[in-house]
């Protein structure tokens, strides 16, 4: 009987890291986040998830993305041969900073990618401060 050492290594890795059989780990919902001008953009990979199976909630400054990958239609007539894509409900939370405008988040879902656009709050944007040139208005500081 021959054994495949890489198969055993893969099995052990999945057991140790807990990646087998569940899709609730953050790595299962990979994301990119970046700033583009006056907004932050966050993209989540959600292949095979229907748009109506995605929920977005925000409470205070915590954004929760919850999605469900459902089984293929067909019920009892389907005999699965290989099943590597995890099914079920999974979620991910992001803690948003005070400098973001959470009242104006825009969400778009296309080609299995959920894209969130979060504008920077007006109070957090860089601004120019005028300098007064009148010396008579200044107070002298004594040491």
Automatic annotation (TrEMBL):
Ranges of residues in domain SHSP: 22-134
InterPro entries, A to Z: A-crystallin/Hsp20_dom (IPR002068), HSP20-like_chaperone (IPR008978), Small_HSP (IPR031107)
Listed Pfam families: HSP20
Similarity-based family: Belongs to the small heat shock protein (HSP20) family.
Name of the protein: SHSP domain-containing protein
